[in-house]
Amino acid sequence: FSGAIYCFLDSCLKPYSFANPSIADSGLRFHYVAAGERGKPLMLLLHGFPEFWYSWRHQLREFKSEYRVVALDLRGYGETDAPSHKEDYKLDCLITDIKDILESLGYNKCVLIGHDWGGMIAWLVAICYPEMVTKLIVVNFPHPSVFTEYILRHPSQLIKSGYYFFFQMPWFPEFMFTVNDFKVLKSLFTSQATGIGRKGCRLTAEDIEAYLYVFSQPGALTGPINHYRNIFSCLPLQHHEVIMPTLLLWGERDAFMEVEMAEITRIYVKNHFRLTILSEASHWLQQDQPDIVNKLIWTFLKEETTRKRE
Fold first, then answer.
1. Distance in angstroms (rounded) separating the CA atoms of residues 77 and 82
2. End-to-end CA distance of the chain
3. Is the pTM of this model over 0.85?
4. Rounded to whole angstroms, how far apart are CA atoms 71 and 85?
5. Using an 8 Å Cβ cutoff, are 120 and 141 in contact?
6. Euclidean distance between CA atoms 219 and 240, whole angstroms
7. Listed GO molecular functions (predicted)?
8. CA 203 – CA 196 distance, rounded (Å)
9. DSSP-derived 3-state class of residue 19
10. Are 278 and 289 in contact (CB under 8 A)?
11. CB neighbours (10 Å) of residue 206?
12. What amino acid positions are annotated as catalytic residues?
């Protein structure tokens, strides 16, 4: 089974390189997949939950012509090291990871792209280390301050984010994901309620098997869920403003995030801000509508960086 998965991944990604750089400060090894020549501008991709670098496969292929594209496995995910203590997944650790990885790759700045939980981390990196982010692109996650303020005022979003609170329990969330041959994991991507719709680029059987292989490894769910077990460690934020050009892409059929938060995010971006909402797209936007997403990213990247907020 595992051999079949890696054979499939290898056949799709032969032009790409795989690496596990060691980050000196944390001592952790981070796995990533890279495409494009070294020395080109860096595009760093941060995945969401429950995903891994593979969720960016369409973007790895698309942007390698002009960028060194690096899709990371976040701390605790996939082949990246997974510390055993819950406290090792605090948001400040996750933010510092991105800074250290950037430096270990030999860069001092990048185009930073994040989806879902990776979007949360991308916002925070942009706020804490603005000199390292030339342009920020976030997919289906609002500015963190918008999220925390909105969820307190809108019970409907509180219900949609109920899994944040469920994940605070020890061991039981991990168990629930494994029940019935990982039915919950599969349904997140494929069900009518939360998955990619009929008009989207649905995951193939091989795609689903890749996800199942990664998350069926012993202990593979604990690290990812530990991210959520520390979400309250640095929220609300002391600093809010985002000063680089920012693109926010949003699938309106997102079952987990209400679209109203996308427009409110504009308040916190003190530079050019572009919001594009795709009406037929799901939460899994860069996999759901890869051609449209890639086109929107290209357009944003080629815009003049000196443009001010619209």
1. 7
2. 51
3. yes
4. 25
5. yes
6. 35
7. epoxide hydrolase activity
8. 8
9. strand
10. yes
11. 13
12. 116, 228, 283
